Amino acid sequence: MLKFIFMILFSFMLLFYKNIYWMVQNLLFFITFLFMLNVFSMNYFMSISYYFGIDMISYGLILLSLFICSLMLMASESIIRFNNYINLFLFMILFLLFMLILTFSSMSMFMFYLFFESSLIPTLFLILGWGYQPERLQAGMYLLFYTLLASLPLLIGIFYIKMISFSMNFVVLSLFINYNLNYLYLCLIFAFLVKMPMFLVHLWLPKAHVEAPVSGSMILAGVLLKLGGYGLLRMFSILQISGMKYNFIWISISLIGGVLVSLICLWQMDLKSLIAYSSVAHMGIVLGGLMTMTYWGLNGSYTLMIAHGLCSSGLFCLANISYERMSSRSLLINKGMLNFMPSLSLWWFLLCSSNMAAPPTLNLLGEISLMNSIISWSWLTMIMLSLLSFFSAAYTLYLFAYSQHGKVYSGNMFFFISNIREYLLLMLHWLPLNLLILKSNLCMLWI
């Protein structure tokens, strides 16, 4: 594992050169493909070195982080066009990628906490430094305080576990699943519920997405929301007894919240805001399935996390492509795109259909697994799940129909036809999303 960590670390040296942007992007793609080859030699825990190692849960999420960070650089061409602190921007993305890889490969609970919190810093700088509007300061404060307030109890919980078990290693702790940590249960999972984000603590996410540049939105939707799911997957190996008592609370909030957020999506007029709220609805069902603590639930939540990372990131790219042409994210202005960019409408259709879990996407596999696990947990959940599925299709069709059909807005427009970079960017989101289902046993956890 250390070889990949050092590859990222030494790539910081490139930032002392000028005109290095595309070189760094190609290097990240190269590291992604090198990492991809590792799956053939995968044991349960691979490449254990000092405090770092990868199992199948980490593998998919590290690969997703590398891939999304490569695509972030491809999407952010406007940074080069306006000469907007290019090397500082590259530094932030490399630093964020470095922290994410360390987070997902940490075997110690304290190291995981340390890097989990550190990934907040470059994200905050991306929003504050390269955001579009003055409201980005408020969005940054929301992000900072929500995350910090929720994660301080987690630190106390980790130290308490160290005190009673004399270890902070995930593998060692998972052998002692008889902890009855009722009073620590909330402390240990609340930080991850905020990061997911669960309904009621989700307000920071739409604000952060709307104010972030395209790269910030891509990494937020693609990887940072998955930190919460990954943390819960790790924590529930030691919280099984408490989880069986109290998990019904979070499943209820997630499913009811998912339906309410889907309704909120239907009256959004901002492209990015609509996609951000749809992320909250999808993460609600992921959280519900994960909290059932069944094999189907864990597999489904992991699969949908990977699928949502690719799909949501692609939708944010599309929203940014429209924003660059129209200088607005309003659905009232972004109408009738089919008239002058029909080939881009195809990508809107493909990614919107992925977002509503149409076959043959990986989203479908994840949602079927999650529905299986949640309904087997309690048949009453069928009511909320059916509403969630219906409204999910409704707001996705609303997004597609409203942005592609209708009369073209006749205000000040700066049209230039899409270039190959944008089509390649969208294809790299959509292709893995639909090809991974052919080898879907890779997305199933080896538990």
Automatic annotation (TrEMBL):
Name of one Pfam family that matches: Proton_antipo_M
GO cellular component, one term: mitochondrial membrane
GO biological process, one term: electron transport coupled proton transport
Classification via InterPro entries: NADH4_N (IPR000260), NADH_UbQ_OxRdtase (IPR003918), ND/Mrp_TM (IPR001750)
EC code(s) of this entry: 7.1.1.2
Membrane topology value: Multi-pass membrane protein
UniProt entry tagged with the keyword Mitochondrion: yes
Predominant subcellular localization, coarse grouping: mitochondrion
Subcellular location: Mitochondrion membrane
Transmembrane regions listed in the UniProt entry: 20-42, 48-73, 85-104, 110-131, 143-163, 183-205, 217-236, 248-267, 274-296, 302-323, 344-362, 374-402
Keywords: Electron transport, Membrane, Mitochondrion, NAD, Respiratory chain, Translocase, Transmembrane, Transmembrane helix, Transport, Ubiquinone
One of the record's GO molecular function terms: ubiquinone binding
Role: Core subunit of the mitochondrial membrane respiratory chain NADH dehydrogenase (Complex I) that is believed to belong to the minimal assembly required for catalysis. Complex I functions in the transfer of electrons from NADH to the respiratory chain. The immediate electron acceptor for the enzyme is believed to be ubiquinone. Core subunit of the mitochondrial membrane respiratory chain NADH dehydrogenase (Complex I) which catalyzes electron transfer from NADH through the respiratory chain, using ubiquinone as an electron acceptor. Essential for the catalytic activity and assembly of complex I.
Name under which the protein is recorded: NADH-ubiquinone oxidoreductase chain 4
Name of the gene encoding the protein in the UniProt record: nad4
